[in-house]
Design a protein that fits this description.
By secondary structure, the protein is mostly helical. It has twelve helices and two strands. It has helices spanning 24-51, 58-87, 94-127, 132-135, 138-156, 158-164, 181-185, 193-226, 231-239, 242-264, 270-295, 297-311; strands at residues 11-13, 91-93. It has a two-stranded antiparallel sheet with strand order 1-2. α1 crosses α12, α2 (58-87) packs antiparallel against α3 (94-127) and α3 packs across α10 (242-264). It comes from Oryctolagus cuniculus.
Length: 312
């Protein structure tokens, strides 16, 4: 008990993948590769959009926001994940853990909001193309970006304080190689009803509502596309949405999988919970730049031109 003060431990112990501790040095290589792909891919997207005047359009501004949130998410988890797997350095200070928790949840919520904004962009482009330029001005796009950021900060600002008020004395061992709110609150030896209710409120009112509005926007898009007489025009319109749909699936499918495992898979092995959580955090930042580079010819052309200028 010497390491504890009145309300919380001085530090937490992070956990890699239970049962595979001896394989952690071998897993460090693939993890480093995934981080490198996420950081390089998203940085390349950001640099391409910044340096290519033809990409200074609403769709690509939103893509830049998505890439920024993916870079930020990767940077938020990278220090503790690599320390845990590469160096077996599992200690993290209590306040540092709170800060990481806030960053991870904030950037995750930010990504959800950006995906919603991108669905609105596709809705206007397909359902009301004549007003696209007047509706999605630079000022409107900047306002939407600010609103997404402000929502994340304001909604999640109470979380560190809700954790800090709890007396954590059961254990100081977390279930992951990074800090999450549900993981931390389960260590409290006090009533966590407020934390649970607020966490559920945040989940439903932000991620849940975002997913609902994305779904509704695509219902309207589909109705508008089906009204187009030409089959070629219908396919062309839908093709502009493919990258965004894949990005939505890459973000929400792992999230729903994590929630399902936590809610209904209480008897599942611990390593399954950890693997699902890692997939949720690592897959979107790695896949998003690959998806948009592969499915968006304007991005491919701009990247090619950028490398040609570098060679010269």
């Amino acid at each position: 008990m010497g390491m504890y003060n009145v309300t919380h431990p001085a530090s937490f112990l992070l956990t890699g993948i239970p049962g595979l501790e001896r394989s952690h040095p071998w897993l460090a290589g693939p993890l480093c590769m995934m981080y490198a792909m996420a950081l390089l891919g998203n940085t390349l997207i950001l640099q391409t959009v910044r340096g290519e005047p033809s990409l200074h359009a609403p769709m690509y501004y939103f893509l830049s926001m998505l890439s920024f949130s993916d870079v930020a998410m990767s940077m938020a988890t990278l220090p503790t994940v690599l320390r845990t797997f590469c160096l077996d350095a599992r200690n993290i200070a209590f306040d540092a853990c709170l800060f990481q928790m806030f960053c991870i949840h904030s950037f995750s919520m930010m990504e959800s909001g950006i995906l919603l904004a991108m669905s609105f962009d596709r809705y206007v482009a397909i359902c009301n193309p004549l007003r696209y330029a007047t509706m999605l001005t630079n000022e409107v796009i900047a306002g939407m970006g600010f609103a997404v950021t402000a929502r994340s900060f304001i909604t999640l600002f109470p979380l560190p304080f809700l954790i800090k008020r709890l007396p954590i004395c059961r254990s100081n061992v977390l279930s992951h190689s990074y800090c999450l709110h549900p993981d931390m609150m389960k260590l409290a030896c006090a009533d966590i009803t407020i934390n649970s209710i607020y966490g559920l409120f945040v989940l439903v009112s932000t991620f849940g509502m975002d997913l609902l509005f994305i779904f509704l926007s695509y219902m309207l898009i589909l109705r508008s596309v089906l009204a187009i007489a030409s089959r070629e025009e219908r396919l062309k319109a839908l093709n502009t949405c493919v990258s965004h749909i894949l990005a939505v699936l890459a973000f929400y499918v792992p999230m729903i999988g994590v929630s399902t495992v936590h809610r209904f898979g209480k008897d599942a092995p611990r390593y399954l919970h950890v693997l699902m959580s890692n997939i949720y955090l690592f897959v979107p930042p790695v896949l998003n730049p690959l998806i948009y580079s592969a499915k968006t010819k304007e991005i491919r052309r701009a990247i090619k031109r950028m490398f040609q200028r570098i060679k010269k």
